[in-house]
Sequence to fold (338 residues):
Amino acid sequence: MISSDHTRARALGAFYGLALGDALGMPTQSLSREQVHARYGRVTGLLAADADQPIAPNLPAGSITDDTEQAVLVAELLVVGGGRIEPAALAQRLIDWEAAMRAKGSQDLLGPSTKRAIELILAGASPDQAGRYGTTNGAAMRITPVGIASDIADPQRFMAQVEQACQVTHNTGLGIASAAAVAAVVSAGINGDDLKAALEQGVEAAQWGQSRGHWVAGGSIAARIGWSRLLCEGCDNQRLPGLIYEVIGTSVASQESVVAAFALARAVAGGQLQPYPALCMAASLGGDTDTIAAMLGAMLGATHSLSAWPNEPLARVKAVNHLDLDRLTEQLLALRSA
Fold:
């Protein structure tokens, strides 16, 4: 059992780690590994986006993307609902969020699974049916508040809350398993587990999640996380990013991006990387870099605490985005202890 101060520091580490990873990956998202290297070399800190960045052109260094914004949206719904997310409310908030992005001229819009689900909701489909095709990483990228608000020590309640957060957009075994894996690492870290133990909890939660929701064809998240551990074993920091990019994959598919985040987290657990350099490595991978780094930041922040993140880049992310997650994190922790 850890003290309330340490619990709070780990919860803040998770939420701000998500935002920091998101901001690090913002300028490189949707670029190939070759494009990332040609423009930036290796990412070692916060960078501004180029004018021809396909999703976030000209955004200043430290800007967050949909990963953090939608996680905040989920957190707010959890607080308003006393720990419960109403499916209709989540659908409407996502619709409103995309409308606001369009009004600003942003290309940072809903992902493919979420967009399809929202279109079905607008056409009259039930929340249970709307998410039956969602297999991408949209639920996993915004699940961190559930990991803060729900204790993995009560697996039944924990999985019910994960499933509830996934239902509208990612109501499939793949979608729920990937979200459960990330949320479990966050929740276990807040309980005081070290990263190695928390990652094992993540694999177990992925196994719980794969039998929930609608069945879709695809490799098991839990099995692929286990396979990635064997794949990357003994791989040094020079070879690891290329192996993740070329073999595991870094697309929006849960079986790639979530597994990639776990592979990098495993390197940290083994002492091969420190948390912040691991986020920079995630941002340098190519592909869905903002989401991979965001999920990784949440998991590492929960197990290594807020102190894992350097003051200067974290302060910049807060300032650029007018981001203050302290009060929201306190409210989520209150739900956890309720």
About this structure: The mean pLDDT is 94. The two ends are 17 Å apart (CA to CA). The longest helix spans residues 4-25. Residues 269 and 299 are 11 Å apart (CA to CA).
